Amino acid sequence: MSGYSTKSGDKRMPEDGAGNASIKHVRKKWRAGVLGATGIVGQRLVSLLADHPWFELTEVAASERSSGKSYAEAARWHLDAPIPAAARNLVVKGLEPSLDCDFVFSALDSSVAGPAEEDFARAGYPVVSNSRNHRMDPDVPLLIPEVNAAHLNAIPLQQKLRGYEDGGFIVTNPNCSTAGLVLVLKPLADAFGLEKIFVVTLQAVSGAGYPGVASMDIHGNVVPFISGEEEKMEAEPQKLLGKWDGARFVDAGLGLSAHCNRVPVLDGHLECVSLSLKKIASLAEVREALRHFEVSAELAALPSAVRHPVVVLDDENRPQPRRDVNAGNGMAAVVGRVRECPLLDVKLTLLSHNLVRGAAGAALLNAELLAARGLFKSRSVAAGEELAEPVSR
């Protein structure tokens, strides 16, 4: 069996010849706010920001019913680890764009995310969004750093077209089930080209938020419908695997069909994928393309990055959510059962953590890349203080 490591040794920043990490050691971190901080994805972001080397959580915001309470009072906490000490006593603010932070994560419900994110961007805040509202906007990057980092070149045009001044913009990450799929498709697209993809998902209940699917509906059952999910899976990969030509996003032109199902698993979306390739490839070549997929030096230097974000297992009964969902600290996609497809060319099974790679971890990695490329700026830095920034390459 091919193993994998979730230890930090596989995902830390590269070192220079003297053994020093390629990040300046400075006194001040970028100050982050989380919109929708009391929800499941918001809680994951709060947890991931604890002790982050580049970011410091300074603001949490949510709906009016939570506004004015301490975060510990407002959040019905769902994670195993306790609420980070730095977040417990933060006062929950409303969604007015007057937060004391340099940028914001958005984990807002789609019913309010659209205009709220626009308000923050207009006020000069970079908005790193997990919400669906702006993913398919023609001037907003839909980003997986390992897949399409070049799409960040759309930000200046977005700012110009929307009148976002003082450094504001919106960047989004994809739907939770799309994230794992496209991460696996990327090395195959690069090596062999893709024509058609057919995917069936088995999606965990945590993807529905809290309280999510009623227990009487999901216990001992499978629900063969998730509202809007198939449409997202069929549209988002086209943008992610497409190109930014300087004026617009050009779709990848794939044939893609998705069936999405909710299953009684807590965390981890399992996907059964069949695909046709433009070039003839053996199963060994497909496995090697996946196994050898390695991120660039720029991405490897990001704190949340995994150098090899696709893990290939050889056991015929893997991947499994219970055993494999935390590969790469939840940031890797795990692939198994690579075999011939009698209808298309190749079929395989993949697994990804829907709340980490598919949500909070994806947004955090996006923010790290934005910071590394100098797209954040301090909104109020006291004299003599510095902000953490990567050493220029």
What are the salient characteristics of this protein?
Dihydrodipicolinate Reductase, domain 2, disordered N terminus, 393 residues, single chain, alpha/beta, 2 domains, Rossmann fold, 6-stranded mixed sheet, 13 helices, 6-stranded parallel sheet, 14 strands
Outline the secondary-structure elements.
Blueprint: E1 30-35, H1 40-49, E2 55-61, H2 71-74, H3 85-88, E3 92-93, E4 103-106, H4 110-122, E5 126-129, H5 145-148, H6 155-162, E6 169-172, H7 176-192, E7 194-203, H8 215-218, H9 229-240, E8 243-244, E9 249-250, E10 255-262, E11 269-277, H10 283-291, H11 297-300, E12 310-312, H12 321-324, E13 333-340, E14 346-352, H13 356-372
Parallel strand pairs: 1-2, 1-4, 2-3, 4-5, 5-6, 7-10, 12-13
Antiparallel strand pairs: 7-11, 8-9, 11-14, 13-14
Helix pairs in contact: 1-13, 7-9, 7-13
